[in-house]
Design goal:
This protein has a domain of 275 residues: Spore Coat Polysaccharide Biosynthesis Protein SpsA, Chain A, CATH 3.90.550.10. The chain has 15 helices and 16 strands. The strands form 5 sheets. Strands 7-6-5-8-11-10-12 form a 7-stranded mixed beta sheet. It has a 3-stranded mixed beta sheet with strand order 9-14-13. A two-stranded antiparallel ribbon has the order 1-2. The protein starts with a helix and ends with a strand. Its main location: Golgi. It is a single-pass type II membrane protein.
Length: 503
C-alpha cells in the first residue's frame, strides 16, 4: 500500500511541477524584461533598435536565458512522459472492473494504537485497498435459539442487507423453534443473492453441556466454540455475530479486515469496553483470566482453516477444563473461554478497532470508539437491559435500532447488479404470473394479491400450539398495526389465532 501512496504522491508532484515551472519561468523573464522601468526586448536586433544601452554582457545574459528556457522545455517534456506512464499504470491497482475499493482503517492489531478505536487517516485515499471483490460471497455465522432471538436476528439481517453490496451466505446454528421460524421467513422473503443454511443446535449440546454457565444465554451461549467443527470443512473464514448486533455500515468493510491478519493471527476481536476482566467492579470479584481488559466476542472474525490446523477443539477444551477446576463455571459464556485461551496464546488475536463492536452495556468506555456518526460501524446491545441501557447517546442508538426493526423488509428484495445469483424457482414463477396480468384491469390489485408472497414471520411472540386430536381447529386471521401493541411499533402483520372449536 506504501507503493500506491508513493505513486500517487509522484503523480501529484509531477502535475504541480508541470503547471508551476512554466509559470515561474515566464514571471522571471517578464520581470527581467524591464530595465529602469522600460521594457527590454529579448531579441538582440530589436534591442539595438530601441535601446542605446545594449552591451555584450546583456547579450550573454539573454543567451543564457534562452538556454535555460530550452532546458525547462526539455524538463516539461520529461514530466509529460512520466505522467503518461503513471496514468497507464494506475488501473493495475484496482484488480479489474469487478473490484470495489473500501476506505480501510490502518490497523495492525497493536492494542496501544487501536485502544481509542479511531485510527488517524481514515478518510485518506492512501488508506484504501481493493481487497473485497464485487461479487465475493461474505459468510456470516449466527447462533439463534427461541422466539425472542429469532426476532432479533431479523432486525440484525435487515441492517446487514440495507448496507450490503455483496452476496451473503448466512450459517444459522438454530434450535428447532428458530429454524422453523427463520426458514419460513427467508423462503417467503426471497432476497436475491442471499443463501441460508441451518445447523441443528440441539445436536451440538453434548459438545458444550459439560461446561456450567451462569450467563443468561444459557447453553447456546457456548456454541461459538464449536464452529470449526460445525461449519463446512471447505469454509475458510467467517464473521460470527451475536443476535443483538446492529450494523451501521457495509459488512464487506469488516470482511476486508481478514486481509490484514498476519502470522498466526486467527481471531479478530474488539477489546472489551467494560472493567469486567480487570476484576475491580466489586469486592472479591474474580473474573476468568484475560489479556488486559479482555476481548468481547459479540463480533468475531474466524480463520477456520488455520484454527483447524492448530487443533482449536483441543486447545479450548484443555483450557476450559483447567480453569473450571478453580472457577467452577463461566460468567460470560464462550467469552470467558476465548479470553482464557488468548491469555495463554496472545499471538492468536488480531485486535480490531473498537468501532467494530461499540458495546452498549452499563459502565463501558464505548464513547471513546467514535467522534462522529460516520465513525460508527457496529452497535452491540450486550446489556441484559438492551434498549433500556444507560448511555450518553442511547437515544440515537435506540432510534437506529428501531429504524431497522420497523423497516419494510420487502424493500430489501433488490438485485445486486453485475453479480449472478442462483435462480429461485418460486421467485421466477411469481414474476411470470405477475407479468401475465393486465395492469389496466380495474381489478388488477386484487388479482395481483392472489400471487403475492408475503414475508411471513411465524410465531412473532412466544406461542406453544398444540393441535386438536380431532382436527377441529379454527383459524382466525386478522390484520393490525404493531403500534397497537405495547411492545412494538408501526409494523403491519398478520395475527393468526387457533381456537379449539367445541361442538
Amino acid at each position: 500500500m506504501l507503493g500506491i501512496c508513493r505513486g500517487r504522491r509522484k503523480f501529484l508532484a509531477a502535475s504541480l511541477s508541470l503547471l508551476c515551472i512554466p509559470a515561474i519561468t515566464w514571471i522571471y523573464l517578464f520581470s527581467g524584461s524591464f530595465e529602469d522601468g522600460k521594457p527590454v526586448s529579448l531579441s538582440p536586433l530589436e534591442s539595438q533598435a530601441h535601446s542605446p544601452r545594449y552591451t555584450a554582457s546583456s547579450q550573454r545574459e539573454r543567451e543564457s536565458l534562452e538556454v535555460r528556457m530550452r532546458e525547462v522545455e526539455e524538463e516539461n517534456r520529461a514530466l509529460r512522459r512520466q505522467l503518461s506512464l503513471a496514468q497507464g499504470r494506475a488501473p493495475s491497482h484496482r484488480r479489474g472492473n469487478h473490484s470495489k475499493t473500501y476506505s480501510m482503517e490502518e490497523g495492525t492489531g497493536d492494542s496501544e494504537n487501536l485502544r481509542a478505536g479511531i485510527v488517524a487517516g481514515n478518510s485518506s485515499e492512501c488508506g484504501q485497498q481493493p481487497v473485497v471483490e464485487k461479487c465475493e460471497t461474505i459468510h456470516v455465522a449466527i447462533v439463534c435459539a427461541g422466539y425472542n432471538a429469532s426476532r432479533d436476528v431479523v432486525t440484525l439481517v435487515k441492517s446487514v442487507l440495507f448496507h450490503r453490496r455483496n452476496p451473503l451466505h448466512f450459517h444459522l446454528i438454530a434450535d428447532s423453534i428458530a429454524e422453523q421460524i427463520l426458514a419460513t421467513l427467508f423462503q417467503t422473503w426471497m432476497v436475491p443473492a442471499v443463501r441460508v443454511d441451518f445447523y441443528n443446535a440441539d445436536e451440538l449440546k453434548s459438545e458444550v453441556s459439560w461446561i456450567p454457565n451462569k450467563h443468561y444465554s444459557g447453553i447456546y451461549g457456548l456454541m461459538k466454540l464449536v464452529l470449526t467443527k460445525t461449519l463446512p470443512a471447505n469454509l475458510e473464514r467467517v464473521i460470527v455475530l451475536d443476535t443483538d448486533i446492529t450494523f451501521a455500515t457495509d459488512i464487506a468493510e469488516l470482511w476486508a479486515v481478514f486481509h490484514k491478519f498476519k502470522g498466526q493471527q486467527v481471531l479478530g476481536l474488539v477489546e472489551n469496553q467494560s472493567d469486567w476482566y480487570l476484576g475491580n467492579l466489586w469486592k472479591n470479584h474474580r473474573p476468568w483470566p484475560a489479556l488486559g481488559r479482555g476481548y468481547n466476542t459479540g463480533v468475531i472474525l474466524l480463520l477456520l482453516d488455520k484454527l483447524r490446523k492448530m487443533k482449536w477443539e483441543q486447545m479450548w477444551r484443555l483450557t476450559a477444563e483447567r480453569e473450571l477446576m478453580g472457577m467452577l463455571s463461566t460468567s460470560l459464556a464462550d467469552q470467558d473461554i476465548f479470553n482464557a485461551v488468548i491469555k495463554q496464546n496472545p499471538f492468536l488475536v488480531y485486535q480490531l478497532p473498537c468501532f467494530w463492536n461499540v458495546q452498549l452495556s452499563d459502565h463501558t468506555r464505548s464513547e471513546q470508539c467514535y467522534r462522529d456518526v460516520s465513525d460508527l460501524k457496529v452497535i452491540h446491545w450486550n446489556s441484559p437491559k438492551k434498549l433500556r441501557v444507560k448511555n450518553k447517546h442511547v437515544e440515537f442508538f435506540r432510534n437506529l435500532y428501531l429504524t431497522f426493526l420497523e423497516y419494510d423488509g420487502n424493500l430489501l428484495r433488490r438485485e445486486l447488479f453485475g453479480c449472478p445469483s442462483e435462480a429461485d424457482v418460486n421467485s421466477e414463477n411469481l414474476q411470470k404470473q405477475l407479468s401475465e396480468l393486465d395492469e389496466d384491469d380495474l381489478c388488477y390489485e386484487f388479482r395481483r394479491e392472489r400471487f403475492t408472497v408475503h414475508r411471513t414471520h411465524l410465531y412473532f411472540l412466544h406461542y406453544e400450539y398444540e393441535p386438536a386430536a380431532d382436527s377441529t381447529d379454527v383459524t382466525l386471521v386478522a390484520q393490525l398495526s404493531m403500534d397497537r401493541s405495547m411492545e412494538m411499533h408501526g409494523i403491519d402483520f398478520l395475527v393468526i389465532v387457533r381456537i379449539k372449536w367445541a361442538f
